[in-house]
Design goal:
It is built from one helix and no strands. It has 194 residues and is largely without helices or strands. Keywords: Signal.
């Protein structure tokens, strides 16, 4: 029962907060302080508190029998079914259906379509041989080569050397001349662009 009270408290606190925010958003007119109120803006705080009408211990959380001796209680009671009732459920399953679709072609032209064609396959059949058949076998044969042999290299030999020579490049000098038109003030400012 304690958990139920805590849940009710949380629900009503959230409802009171939501109502207070809606009322605060709706008040756009600002009245002057002290004209219609109680002096310096003090007033009654409203019904959204802990013990008010919408709070935990207020009147809105319980139904009080105020009628003249007649109380009507409505309660939804689940009635168990004796046996399961079959219900037809229609389930649509997408099935791809190949349907030829005519595509209009303004200029028909011949398209090469690969078709199966006969290919000759050579099938090897083993045949018994009653005599030995000479088969050429590649055997490495040593060839006499006079090694090591002398290689003549001219000594000394010429080696090309690339020598880089500095070449002076004439670059024009840029001269920036400043002219004074007489309209400028002596104080530095970002607005004197004359």
């Amino acid at each position: 029962m304690n958990a139920m009270n805590a849940k009710l408290f949380v629900v009503f606190a959230l409802m009171a907060t939501a109502l207070a925010e809606e009322q605060a958003a709706g008040d756009t007119k600002k009245d002057k302080r002290g004209i219609y109120g109680l002096g310096y803006g003090g007033g009654y705080g409203g019904y959204g508190g802990y013990g008010g009408y919408g709070g935990y211990g207020g009147y809105a959380s319980y139904n009080l029998p105020i009628s003249h001796g007649v109380s009507v209680i409505t309660k939804a009671v689940a009635v168990p079914v004796a046996h399961p009732v079959p219900v037809a459920v229609e389930k649509h399953v997408p099935v791809p259906v190949k349907v030829p679709v005519a595509v209009p072609v303004d200029r028909p032209y011949a398209v090469h379509v690969p078709k199966p064609y006969p290919v000759e396959v050579t099938k090897h059949v083993p045949v018994p041989v009653d005599r030995p058949v000479p088969v050429p076998v590649g055997v490495p044969v040593k060839v006499p080569v006079p090694a090591p042999y002398a290689v003549k290299v001219p000594q000394p030999y010429a080696v090309p050397v690339v020598k880089q020579i500095p070449v002076p490049v004439v670059q024009p000098a840029v001269v920036v001349e400043k002219y004074n038109s007489g309209w400028q003030s002596g104080y530095p400012s970002g607005y004197s662009s004359w």
